[in-house]
Amino acid sequence: MLTSLMEFARNPQRIAVFAATAVLAATLALPSCPAQAPAPPPQPHSILDRLNAMLSGGKSAWTPEQIAVMERLRDAALKDPYALDELRHLTDNIGPRLSGSPQAQQAVDYVAAEMRALGAEVTLEKAQVPHWVRGQETAEVVSWPGQAPGTTQKIVLTALGGSVATPAEGLTAEVVVVDNWKQLAALPKGAAAGKILLFNHKFDKELAAEGHGGAAYGGSVVYRGAGPSAGAAVGAAAVLVRSAGGGDYRSPHTGLTDYVDGAAKVPAAAVTAEDADLLKNLAGQGPVKLHLTLTPQTLPDAPSYNVIADWKGSEHPEQVVVVSGHLDSWDLGTGAIDDGAGVAVSMQAMHLLKALGIHPRRTVRFIAWMSEEEGSQGAAAYMVEHKDDAANHIGAIESDLGADHPTGIYYAGKQGLGGWLRPVGGVLDAIGAGSLLSAPETGEDIGGLTDKGVPSFAPVQDSRFYFNYHHTAADTFDKVEPQHLNENAAVMTVLAYALADSAEAAPR
Amino acid sequence: MLTSLMEFARNPQRIAVFAATAVLAATLALPSCPAQAPAPPPQPHSILDRLNAMLSGGKSAWTPEQIAVMERLRDAALKDPYALDELRHLTDNIGPRLSGSPQAQQAVDYVAAEMRALGAEVTLEKAQVPHWVRGQETAEVVSWPGQAPGTTQKIVLTALGGSVATPAEGLTAEVVVVDNWKQLAALPKGAAAGKILLFNHKFDKELAAEGHGGAAYGGSVVYRGAGPSAGAAVGAAAVLVRSAGGGDYRSPHTGLTDYVDGAAKVPAAAVTAEDADLLKNLAGQGPVKLHLTLTPQTLPDAPSYNVIADWKGSEHPEQVVVVSGHLDSWDLGTGAIDDGAGVAVSMQAMHLLKALGIHPRRTVRFIAWMSEEEGSQGAAAYMVEHKDDAANHIGAIESDLGADHPTGIYYAGKQGLGGWLRPVGGVLDAIGAGSLLSAPETGEDIGGLTDKGVPSFAPVQDSRFYFNYHHTAADTFDKVEPQHLNENAAVMTVLAYALADSAEAAPR
């Protein structure tokens, strides 16, 4: 998902903005029991939407016939197994798709072939991507208050993406625990020198459970991003961070860390919430020593690709509407919710245009982005390649917040977009996904387009459980509820068609 | 908890009985949201209880003064931090307490010292226990339909307790998947010979979520118990079982397996639900090969101990009421819910008798049982040591189903026990724990006493979430809600006092 942690770490404002967005989104989320919670009823439209609709004279950008097409696409998406089948193949048959890995390349080839099979015009757009490979990752507490002679305690952790390695035989050092930046700043000079520094900032599970998953994540991910360099700056030999996520099943959450350029790099790993609690408890009683072994490797950057597939527009083939997700994933799980689902629902948009024989005025451009997790190199390459073409980008959609029930659409751009989109919201109201919410950003990979003024969009997904699984070994196919995936496919498909076939392009 | 899987595997009736018990218990469980669900309101007493009370003429075995003592004990248990502090020490400072391990011995010494500090008369009762040690445990799918050249897929698993090892370098074989015994029986002759056989029986999560955790467990654990020998009987090179538990966080559930005496033993492990799904999906598409490495060791049986601590009765010191939990645990987590909590709430019963200066007529005997998880050798030793003393055992209590909110007390013995206990239920009604439920068994370690006619008891714990964590790495201190733990301590303490101080002994 839009980790964008380098941005988060460097720009606290963005966190605040993201948090604010999440708070907005949460006004639509109903607190209820997990897993099989029924879809919330359609929400009343915002006053802003109604105002916009009034200001536009209530004139719709779509004819009744086009609305009928949207309804057909929506209903087909709800029933068609294509998205689920594609997701199952990406996750079970291909597996994890770490940037630079053979599986990532296999996924590129597979998705390209699937798009060609639909008759789309396929381009592989090259990008140099990081090629980091996880190694051994173990830790044991080897000394603590009350220890029985000869015993150790296992600590469950996982290396952060991009981490450097410890010596092959590991390193042993005392653990220093801080809960936040303030406690780090308050450490006596030299207190962390040569030690293993643990950032024990707790992921706000209650906030997430209330539907503010992004805000909870934003509060934690800064430690994952900036913690290792902050630790190195005070002389720590290694840095551990409490996992930026929920779950409570002793499952560590990986994710990219962000070493400060030119500064010392120390090995960095995420421990589980349980192990952070243990270390904090024990370190509060007396000296605690940990033996830590991480042997990841950073190989030379590797060539990889965005998969671009165009369903050519019938009137304005040069004008494009992007519908997208990111194809790479972390390596612990199989990248089902992050972001196989986003790719699969975008593929479904293409598949249904083909299946229903629909040729919108403008080009619908499917993109499976590469390396979102490790710096969005694919998106950067796209922005270079298409740097003079922003005007022809009529809209861009990315799905990268899982596949739980969508309640609507985020939009970033001109204020009038919400009112303009109201008829589309009306079509999606039938599946409880008709709310239209203004947001400062919509997706990591389409952020460059957003910045260039291209109207951009994302489904508003239920994020209450997303961060329990995010970046863990448990991000697997079974976490995706087929009905919810199809609802997301409906949102993506209807919106892509609407943007590509409106009489006038979306306001910008 | 009362795995007793050897019994389960060999005696399907017991599963049915256990399931029926769980169904009974579930009638008291309110479906609600996890974690911080409020305690359900006190339930109406059963018609049977009322009938029994009427038949006994409504005469209470306890005076109003004794009822007042119970209320004091209950209220003290709700506030006193002793149980939580002891549990934290057992889990965080000592850690996993596998039978035969240094940590198990440390726990024996620690608990004995704590009991001595209260002024109880402490005996260490020797038992020879298994000494099985987990080794390396890894698996990768090395060949499957759609595989990219040079790639593998990691399978998350854990060796079953007592499993024999694979060769040190592992073994590679094709995977054969069966969902149940029927599918195993339907395999063509020789179909599993030399293969890795996966029993893919799904833990019934819905049943567990409705409060029937024990019934769901009973339906799955038979495969863990009997599956490996059943696989060996059809020539399998190794056996995998889908984890007997819920959770959905790719966390494997260990537990004892039960090789048939004298038959071939093959390496046996539990895979996660996610990995079982993956293997089933891939194997349904074509041949799947797995490389499996398990290097556990079965060392010679080791001496260990039940910790027995008597709070001597003031009138009948020879008559005893047992209050107990089991001190050993599996090794993946730190044994907080299984069964550090049972030990801690039993310790609290002793602590509060001391703290409040209460000396019941009969002896309250705390027991921390050893090796429940690996065959209940501690309980067996107790039954040998005290074989002629059943008549002096007035009652026996064990807590071994976690530490979630208790709704009442299970009792096994004479039908009249429920009515006789009604005044005790009345004291516990104030914390929603006053229901009295007849059950065929109450706890694995006190099963021998139950069989000899000793009235036996256990808290009726909310089991909706217990089997998500049971026997996994996530069975850690944080899983215990302090308020719920204290409610369990109240049940144990009040009941132990009531049994030990009633004018007449409990009916039998």
Q: If you had to describe this structure to a student in words, what would you say it looks like?
A:
- The structure is a homodimer of 508-residue chains.
- Chain A has 508 residues and is α/β, with parallel strands linked by helices.
- Chain A folds into two domains: 47-131 and 300-501, Aminopeptidase; 135-295, Glucose Oxidase, domain 1 (3-Layer(bba) Sandwich).
- Helices cover 37% and strands 22% of the residues of chain A.
- Chain A is built from 16 helices and 16 strands.
- Chain A has helices spanning 5-10, 12-26, 47-55, 64-79, 82-94, 102-117, 181-186, 205-209, 213-233, 273-283, 336-355, 377-385, 417-429, 447-451, 466-469, 482-501, and strands at 121-133, 137-143, 153-155, 157-159, 171-178, 196-199, 238-242, 268-271, 289-294, 297-311, 316-326, 362-369, 393-398, 406-412, 435-438, 456-461.
- Chain A has an eight-stranded mixed sheet with strand order 1-10-12-11-13-16-14-15, sandwiched between helices. An eight-stranded mixed sheet of chain A has the order 3-2-9-5-6-7-8-4.
- In chain A, helix 2 (12-26) runs antiparallel to helix 9, helix 3 (47-55) crosses helix 13 and helix 4 runs antiparallel to helix 16.
- The radius of gyration of chain A is 23 Å and the shape is elongated.
- The two termini of chain A are 26 Å apart.
